[in-house]
Amino acid sequence: MKQASLIRFRIDFSENCNVGPGKIALLEEIRNCGSLSQAARAMKLSYRRAWLLIDSVNKTFDVPATVNQTGGTRGGGAEVTPFGVLLIERYREAEQKLNDVAGGCLEEIRRHVKGNAPAPARKVPLSKRRRTSG
Q: Of 39, 124, 20, 42, which Cα lies nearest the Cα of 77?
């Protein structure tokens, strides 16, 4: 069974240039669904909110993390670019390393958690977060 994450973090590459768990999860869902609207529905986000998050990611870097395909017989869609895949992979790698370190540092403390199970990460719906959060 996968252990719950201890650390949820956002990377601020520069002012107004950040990526965090929400944006990464949305990129992963787009990769799975092939559609921004389907990804938004799966994550219980409005299409507008999902679009704004992806637009901010695409404007953050000099290469896009996603590309859109318009209309056609299959109705268009969205695709995560190789850079987007790299962004997901490196974020998840950093997340794993941070959680490994935190797990070791906090082992004595975690033994005192009632029920001896880690508390689930508190999830704030993306729709309730500030626009600049990731």
A: 39
